[in-house]
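Practice problem: predict the structure.
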Amino acid sequence: MFSHVMIGTNDLDKAKTFYDKLLGTLEVRPARVDGHRIFYITKTGVFSVSKPINGEPATCANGATIGFAANSPEQVDAWHAAGVAAGGKPIEDPPGIREGSGVKLYLAYLRDLDGNKICAMHRMPN
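Answer:
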């Protein structure tokens, strides 16, 4: 459904270091830098981080979450650990299984360096 997701940052170099480490646990190559933006390009879509074009400070969206697909619970755990080690803030419950409406998910949540809410998710067999 989506071609790409872009979020803002106030420090592109710090964001690149953070997301290179974080997304590397999901087998995503380091970002390609394009001026005031960085791009993580995969077969299933593009994730980008950008300094705001209007010159105003980047702010996080209230109520928004960016979710990244993981291949296993272990990959979710590695994603979470890498994010915390790179300065992300753990939020909500610790990484683990969440069930509801006939689905079983293994999830972990963080806030990135700019306060954006991010998640790694693995869909588990029922």
